[in-house]
Amino acid sequence: MAGTITHRLSALGLELPEVVAPLAAYVPATRVGNQVWTSGQLPLVDGSLPATGKVGAEVSEDQGYELARRACLNALAAIDALVGLDNVTRVIKVVGFVASAPGFTGQPKVINGVSELIGEVFGDAGAHARSAVGVAVLPLDSPVEIEIIVEVADVAT
């Protein structure tokens, strides 16, 4: 049904941000056949990070969760700009990186910010495979970075 994802976003009170400009030599998303792969997306808001540092130290697990949701919206904006979100037929995979303080093991809970948002937006088509990885540091000292791979309908690019 045309407009379903866009309608769901609106009903949830969510608005896609402008596509985040790449920080280096890459594109925000690329299409290969019937899949779209996003580049790593940070939780940038108007060009800035709302928080920096490690989850489990400077950033709480709950803040990390919210930052992951924001990074997800940025990834969805990149997909929308490339092929239109209403052409997504299913979410295939989410990869989440969490800049983690020593001993922090709550990466899955942080990346649930992405998975739960995808479930709200895509319903059953949002069921996906996932990795949640703790890392020492991320670009710009971001607490989280995410990538999404989706399947899309056969539409012209």
- How big a fraction of the residues is strand? 15-25%
What structural class do the secondary elements suggest? alpha+beta
> Count of helical segments?
3
Q: Which blocks of ≥5 consecutive residues have pLDDT under 50?
A: none
DSSP strand tally: 5
CATH homolog superfamily: RutC-like
The domain tally reads 1
CATH class: Alpha Beta
| CATH topology tier name | 60s Ribosomal Protein L30, Chain: A
Average pLDDT reading: 95
CA gyration radius, whole angstroms: 15 Å
Distance between the termini: 20 Å
Strand order of the largest sheet: 1-2-5-3-4
Spell out the helices and strands N to C. HEEHEHEE
- CATH architectural arrangement: 2-Layer Sandwich
> What best-fitting shape do the alpha-carbon axes yield?
globular
Strand count, sense and barrel status of the largest sheet are: 5 strands, mixed
Q: What's the quaternary structure here? A: single chain
Protein name: Endoribonuclease L-PSP
Domain Endoribonuclease L-PSP/chorismate mutase-like: 8-147
Organism: Corynebacterium lipophiloflavum (strain ATCC 700352 / DSM 44291 / CCUG 37336 / JCM 10383 / DMMZ 1944)
Task: Please give a structural write-up.
Pfam families: YjgF_endoribonc. Residues 8-147 form the Endoribonuclease L-PSP/chorismate mutase-like domain. This is Endoribonuclease L-PSP. It is a single chain. The chain has 157 residues and is of the alpha+beta class. It has a single domain, classed as 2-Layer Sandwich (60s Ribosomal Protein L30, Chain: A). It is built from 3 helices and 5 strands, in the order αββαβαββ. The protein has helices at 4-11, 61-83, 107-122; strands spanning 29-32, 35-38, 88-99, 129-135, 144-152. Helix 2 packs across helix 3 (107-122).
